[in-house]
Amino acid sequence: MQAIVLVGGEGTRLRPLTYGTPKPMVPIANVPFLARTMERLYEAGIRDVILPAGYLPQAIVDYFGDGSKLDMNITYVIEDEPLGTAGALKNVEQHVTGPFFVLNGDVLTSLDLRAMMAFHKEKGGLGALHLIKVEDPSAFGCIVHDDDLRISAFVEKPAKGTEPTDEVNAGTYLFDRAVLDMIPAGRNVSIERETFPKILAEGHALYAYTTSDYWIDLGRPEHYLAAHRDILSGAMPLRLEPGLTGNGAAGARGTILPPVHIDANVTIAATATVGPNVVLAEGCTIGERATVRGSVLWDGVQVGDGASIDETIIASRARIGAGATIKRGSVIGHDAIVPPGAVLEENARYGEPPK
Ligand code: GTP
For the whole model, what pTM was predicted? Predict the structure, then answer.
């Protein structure tokens, strides 16, 4: 079995984080998200992974290489222009040898891929789609199926109140190779809007594999923070080594309010308060009397004396000046400098695209 992980999106909703880091390489508790996805594929017995990339692909290639360090074989196919979620699959056709998984590169889930393989084997058809039930389906692709689980309709982002179901596309598919014959070559094609409806219109069967697994799309800042809260609380089972508190937890000073994950070489002043729901990556520094709550700080972030940070994501090496206040929902980019005493209002975006 092969897997194609879609990693070519620009991740515009996660800007300015994605100016410097492609979305699949955004760290989840200090490890690039894609590395966690690779781990799941490995556990399911999958060794052959194809990565259709295009936006900042070098960061992905530099980290994973040919995959041999993971005992996997990784093939990169770089798109000159974004080909969309189905066009990207068509573009890697020559590397696909049989049935294959497709994973959106930004979905964190505890889905059991082996169980999904067994489901597809039992049901047959051209493919199986992973579905989950959500409270507000209007923001998602709704998928309607019959009692035999055969899919009868796709309704993308229906207006509130008109949703035909609460079951939505969770971004993991298992296809027979013949699906690739249904995608036109050489142009941008959306799997959700074009290919799925076409498969149904031509009378082929797709089946709905609905589970109650943990599932979150990391593509929005509030989801990224929610995913970390869930990981820290254990709601999302994730192997964190060694344990949830991290390499730097033992020597941490200051007032630590768990759950908190602290990586190596982190310095916290004795009068600082960190937590709950905080991740501090390698080399972060937290100044005297500073407070950090509900936030994820990537490596090398410096927080000045007396600064206050609430429910914020801060990318690598950013510096928060003394006495600055960063209000909830904010996102701060790589190497950004927030001046001393500055106040960033709720949901601020602070950071420039690289020159
Ligand atoms: P936003 O710009 O914030 O919407 O993010 P995105 O561009 O990543 O788009 P979206 O979340 O809808 O994409 C779902 C998955 O498909 C992600 O893993 C993307 O990396 C991937 N993806 C989206 N468009 C393309 C594309 O044109 N080519 C490839 N190879 N992957 C894509």
Answer: 0.92
